[in-house]
Design goal:
Elements: E1 4-7, H1 11-23, E2 27-33, H2 40-44, E3 47-52, H3 63-73, E4 77-79, H4 89-97, E5 101-102, H5 107-113, H6 116-125, E6 133-134, H7 141-151, E7 155-159, E8 168-171, H8 174-192, E9 197-201, E10 207-215, E11 221-233, E12 236-242, H9 249-265, E13 270-278, E14 284-290, H10 297-304, H11 308-316, E15 333-340, E16 342-343, E17 349-350, E18 353-354, E19 357-359, E20 364-365, E21 370-375, E22 382-383, E23 390-398, H12 401-413, E24 416-418, H13 424-431, H14 434-438, H15 445-449, H16 461-486, E25 499-504, E26 507-516, E27 519-524, E28 529-534, E29 542-547, E30 550-559, E31 562-567, E32 570-577, H17 579-585, E33 599-601, E34 606-611, E35 618-619, E36 624-630, E37 633-638, E38 643-648, E39 655-656, E40 661-665
Parallel strand pairs: 1-2, 1-4, 2-3, 4-5
Antiparallel strand pairs: 6-9, 7-8, 7-9, 10-11, 10-13, 11-12, 12-15, 13-14, 15-23, 16-17, 18-22, 19-24, 20-21, 21-23, 25-26, 25-32, 26-27, 27-28, 28-29, 29-30, 30-31, 31-32, 33-40, 34-36, 34-39, 35-38, 36-37, 38-40
Helix pairs in contact: 4-5, 7-8, 12-13
């Protein structure tokens, strides 16, 4: 077995590989850029080597720099993680030439399957159903428009060497093909060093289901069941689960056997994933094979009990698989939520900055429940504009799907993140959505259920009552403590009132709170009585409360006259007043927001790639105004109405902060 391995990656996946290597008794080497000097993976590794400036194309994906680190460290093997150089055959060749093991598949398999165009041709030759498309080289935008017309709209424009949603666009008409083709090429060149593009038919209402395979160099191949990856946004997976709520045993077996046959056909040896589109009749079509470890691999580990990273290392060491297909059991259900640094209220645009608070839920592993959090960040660390915005992968496991979902709901409510925008509220909203709960999901779920973007969550009345009762009990407790600390009264509890009015989500609830032991009985004006029990103390940011025997987890921030609360994806302001104060507050005027309708504000920290208009131009609704690049993704900002440009404050190459004024309108 190897004694030392280098991880040619960063963030959570580097930390993930280090954890398994440590349990196997292997020494680890991290590499890092300027931006990652204090990163968690650097702190966790036994050694760390600096490889260059912050941009990935000047550090993490520069083969010569990574190879220099390999030589300097004396590492015997390299794990590439995912993204970056993980599917780069030239990198695998360089390692091979240096006598260093690549913890991944053979060079030939990477070349055949890692390239989406080549892999589709091989799949077609092997008799695998594939989506109609054009696999040749596309010269320019005009060529892309011609090909798209022949295939028929809508089409998917994809980077041949792509992955992780980078270099992918859906086009419904000609001008979208032209724009998407160029943006895809730019993103592909920046992220993968390969700007080749192909186009295929975009199948509406599909499910995205993938098969995890393991193959060794001795001719053995097994499949570890499937993952449902249909909850996607901008072609980027957001929630994954294993198994799929849609597949039946027959389809699962057919897909698994086909995936293994494809792996054997290309001489595959390592962990890999065969991705399929599955329609409503359970017909499945080959999309691509990812010749690397997938982001969502933890859910497969949770339902099979197999450590995929360990198996990759053992296979790279020349070992044969120690189990057969019959040994692989499907146990329980697992969910994975990707926590991103992005603002769900601003169209999920990237957010950067310092994590002023980062407290994941406690990880547990019992016979009936698992909570696992794969992360690469820490409290006080920076979320950089140079890399993917994923902060963590929160996973839960339970014997049933319903239990795994409920475990995830509680875990999400218990996750504390401050200092940046994040998608925790959106994730919670999805897990409470009836269609998701039923398993009736497709890759169009987010677009269909949130067509105007995510506007937040409104809690149902029953949940509002639970929150209102809890807020009243917590506020009364805080007032008792405040009175005690002030020393104003000896018998302080008699001087804190029992009658309060809770204003919450536009509703007002008149309540009477009677303290009892470790909690309170809260009586509403309509006669309802709610029992609240908790060991919460004022000042604690997280409240775990028993409300009438059912758990309620609240993220708590104290504000004047109440709390800011987060639960089940809802961001709430709870104001608790005396009846007289509530009566008077009804006469207060509401603050009117500033009018920004004549301004184009930068929605995220980023770089201006280009400006498409000039002062004096009249633009139409939907017309591209400029392009902003952030976290390796290009974002085209468009006109919301017909208007005239009166002022432009930026130029290509400028770095902007959130809400910087890009241009002004008439």
């Amino acid at each position: 077995m190897f004694k030392k391995i280098l991880i040619a990656n960063r963030g959570e996946i580097a930390c993930r590989v280090i954890k398994t290597a440590r349990t196997m008794g292997l020494s680890t080497v991290a590499i890092y850029s300027d931006a990652d000097r204090r990163a968690l993976h650097v702190q966790m590794a036994d050694e760390a080597i600096h490889i260059g400036p912050s941009p990935a194309n000047r550090s993490y994906i520069v083969i010569d720099k990574v190879m220099a680190a390999v030589r300097a460290s004396g590492a015997e093997a390299v794990h590439p993680g995912y993204g970056f150089l993980s599917e780069n055959s030239k990198f695998a060749e360089a390692l091979q030439a240096a006598g260093v093991a690549f913890i991944g598949p053979p060079v030939g398999a990477i070349e055949k399957m890692g390239d989406k165009i080549t892999s589709k041709k091989i799949a077609q030759a092997a008799g695998v159903n594939t989506v109609p498309g054009y696999m040749g080289v596309i010269a320019d935008g005009d060529d892309a428009v011609r090909i798209s017309g022949e295939i028929g709209y809508p089409v998917m424009i994809k980077a041949s060497a792509g992955g992780g949603g980078k270099g992918m666009r859906i086009a419904w008409k000609e001008d979208e093909v032209r724009e998407g083709f160029q943006s895809s090429k730019n993103e592909a060149a920046s992220s993968f060093g390969d700007d080749r593009i192909f186009i295929e038919k975009f199948i509406t209402q599909p499910r995205h289901i993938e098969i995890q395979v393991l193959a060794d160099s001795h001719g053995n191949a097994v499949y570890l069941h499937e993952r449902e990856c249909s909850i996607q946004r901008r072609n980027q997976k957001v929630i994954e689960e294993a198994p799929s709520p849609f597949l039946d045993p027959e389809t699962r077996k057919a897909m698994g056997e086909q995936a293994c046959a494809l792996a054997k056909a290309v001489g595959y040896a390592s962990a890999g994933t065969v991705e399929f589109i599955v329609d409503g009749d359970r017909n499945f079509y080959f999309l691509e094979m990812n010749t690397r470890l997938q982001v969502e691999h933890p859910v497969t580990e949770l339902i099979t009990g197999i450590d995929l990273v360990e198996q990759m290392i053992r296979i790279a060491n020349g070992e044969a698989l120690s189990f057969t297909q019959d040994d692989i059991q499907l146990k329980g259900w697992a969910m994975e939520s990707r926590l991103y640094a992005e603002d769900p209220y601003r169209g999920f645009l990237p957010s950067i900055g310092r994590l002023t608070r980062y407290r994941p839920p406690a990880e547990i592993a019992t016979e009936t429940a698992v909570v696992r959090n794969d992360t690469g960040v820490f409290e006080g660390g920076e979320i950089s504009m140079f890399y993917d915005p994923m902060i963590a992968k929160l996973c839960t496991w339970a014997p049933t799907r319903a239990e795994a979902i409920e475990g995830m709901r509680v875990a999400l409510d218990s996750f504390e993140v401050e200092g940046i925008g994040h998608n925790l509220p959106f994730l919670s909203a999805v897990y409470d959505h009836p269609k998701f709960i039923s398993g009736d999901i497709t890759t169009a779920f987010i677009a269909e259920e949130y067509p105007d973007g995510f506007k937040g969550v409104s809690l149902p009345e029953a949940e509002m009552v639970r929150v209102a009762a809890s807020a009243a009990a917590m506020y009364r407790l805080a007032e008792i403590r405040r009175t005690r600390v002030s020393g104003r009264m000896d018998n302080h509890e008699r001087k804190v009132g029992d009658d309060w009015v809770v204003s919450l989500q536009g509703e007002s609830y008149a309540v009477t709170v009677a303290g009892q032991g470790d909690g309170a009985e809260v009586r509403f004006a309509d006669g309802r009585v709610v029992s609240v029990r908790s060991d919460w103390t004022p000042g604690t940011r997280l409240a775990v409360i028993d409300v009438d025997g059912a758990p309620l987890v609240l993220k708590v921030d104290k504000i004047a006259g109440g709390f800011r609360l987060r639960t089940r994806g809802a961001e709430l302001t709870a104001l608790i007043r005396t009846p007289r104060a509530a009566e008077l507050s009804a006469h207060m005027l509401e603050k009117v927001a500033a009018d920004t309708s004549k301004l184009l504000l930068c929605p995220m920290p980023g770089l201006i790639v280009n400006v498409n208009v000039a002062v004096g131009d009249t633009v139409q609704e939907g017309q591209a105004l400029c392009t902003v690049e952030a976290m390796k993704m290009e974002n085209i900002l468009r006109a919301e109405k017909t208007t005239t440009i009166t002022k432009i404050n930026v130029a290509a190459g400028d770095n902007l902060a959130v809400d910087d004024v890009i241009m002004e309108f008439e």
